[in-house]
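Subject: Predicted fold for PASTA domain-containing protein, 211 residues

User T.R. writes:
Posting the sequence so we have a shared reference for the thread.
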Amino acid sequence: MVWGHLLYLSGQIISMKNFFNFLKSKTFFIQLGLALLVLIIVIFVTLRYLNNTTNHGEFVEVPDFSKKSVMDMRKSIEEAGLRYEVLDSANYNPDYPRFSIIEQNPSAGSKVKENRKIYFTVNPSGYKKVTVPKIIQVTKRNASSMLKAVGLDVQRVTYVDELGKDMVYQIKYKGKYIKPGDKLPKTSKIELICGNGSITERAVIKSESED
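User M.O. replies:
I've generated the structure tokens; pasting them so everyone works from the same file.
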């Protein structure tokens, strides 16, 4: 039993001695050098791959596409190495040409990676249409509020001989008579024809003849 332990310890001592001798050997340093070289090559190749795939340190300045047509935008964005997506817009802006760019994200001058997608909002062809509310036989004040609520404006008020003072009797748009339920472009300006509180001469004659 004792001899067995002594033989085991002797073997361990010889193994440790051989291990330390190996660490001092030329073979160990050659293998260590090869391992470090392989590690350096792997790190270098990985960094190069990441630089090429992510364009590390390379940025594109987003151009200003404001008021450009969609056709011109497409040409410019391809030249800049970017991608795009067009978003619909329900709000017409009269300060911009129809079907032109009114908003972009990211904004002009931003630094982005090549192939980045830019989102554009395009100006529609005009104001969306709204329905003229039921304002006949409604007071001028209430009619103005109802029109404003749907996006229409009162351009002028014309008075005629009708008994209902400030009561709306007719509506005009660009000189033509219209009626509740008609469709007009939002922000359109209309004319209200209201009564001045006076009874018409025809009504007086008719009333007298009935007597």
